[in-house]
Predict the structure.
Amino acid sequence: MSRWISETLYGSYQQRFEASDVLFEEKTEHQDLIIFENEFFGRVMALDGVIQTTDRDEFIYHEMISHVPILAHGNVKNVLIIGGGDGGVLREVLRHEDVNCTMVEIDASVVDMAKKYFPAHADGAFENPRCNLIIADGLKFVKETTEKFDVIIVDSTDPIGPGEVLFTSEFYSDCQKCLSEAGILVTQNGVPFFQADEVTTTQARMSPHFADMGFYVVAVPTYIGGFMTLAWASNDPAARRQSVDVIEARFKKAGFDTFYYTPGVHVGAFSLPRYIEKLVK
Ligand code: SAM
């Protein structure tokens, strides 16, 4: 017997999925985790009632949150991922052959269950010697580390539950301290059609700590509501404004193929639709 599972992110609007099979459902040490099978999307993961990832559309988000900052920077050696327990960002980051990656995820159960039920997300990346997985709170890690990173990618849950601290001014300030000179911070920043306050709040909290701050967009079917924003901060204003030719040359040199990301999409993603632009002061 199938069961319908609703996302409970918004008060007066829901998306729901038919679960032909519920593979895992448990309260972990940090959050409610459910993994189920859907005929169209394949395997789906939700945390605290919010869709995190699906087999069918994960490539869109994972490519855009990884390759845009790495190729915009152009000389990345060390990446820090905060969150990202399903392994999708790690897989994309490690496609860049010169890059080492530290990943700090608070919930070991998410990693364990992703390895079991979403093997294609990490595609072996957790076992890659260039990956250093640390189970810890991302806020605490950036406060205490003495390491410097060229890119920090915050692949977090929404600002409820354990992810809430990853949307604070304190966290952004600590990220700034562990970025290298031309380093770039990118964070998951919600769907502004529904979560407009995430754009305004993030801008107010993030921009004081960096010379340059903005947003770029990506449309992911199961992060429903049109475009999602990814927040961007750096001390190098040029990084956000690279020409398509520069990005094209770097992408070609990187030597791998993608399913969503192209240099044109990369550059175009920084042109915001007016309703989002108006949220950005
Ligand atoms: N791509 C998804 C999205 O946009 O909604 C996020 C997926 S990923 C599974 C989110 C991860 O962030 C979860 O595994 C969660 O455990 C982790 N997380 C939440 N709060 C955290 C914190 N304070 N430190 C480190 N990881 C955290």
In short: The chain is about 30% helix and 30% strand. The mean pLDDT is 97. Residues 159 and 167 are 6 Å apart (CA to CA).
